[in-house]
Design brief:
This protein is 21% helix and 39% strand. The protein is of the alpha+beta class. It has a 4-stranded antiparallel β-sheet, with helices on one face. It has a two-stranded antiparallel sheet with strand order 1-6.
């Protein structure tokens, strides 16, 4: 039987629709260069990227503004309060 682990650390998910066409890997690296970003997923469909970032920001500029500067376009955000995974 699989064990399920719960992680209660909060983070934000940003669903990004980039405006600029270009190299996906370069865009992902620019997104990873944002201070609070922890993970970038390249996706198909409605969004080009899903960005996971720390939810508590100490920076004066929000992550969504930094994302827009990095790849253009716009993003929608959702806050994740905990997640579950199989061990």
């Amino acid at each position: 039987m699989d064990k399920i682990a719960k992680n209660s650390r909060a983070y934000s998910l940003f669903f990004v629709r980039p405006q600029r066409q270009g190299n996906l890997h370069d865009s992902a690296k620019r997104l990873m260069g944002i201070k609070r970003v922890r993970q970038v997923l390249v996706t198909e469909g409605e969004y080009g990227f899903v960005v996971m970032a720390d939810s508590l920001l100490e920076d004066s500029m929000p992550v969504s503004d930094s994302i827009s500067r990095a790849v253009g376009g716009r993003s929608s955000a959702a806050v994740c309060h905990c997640h579950y995974r199989r061990r």
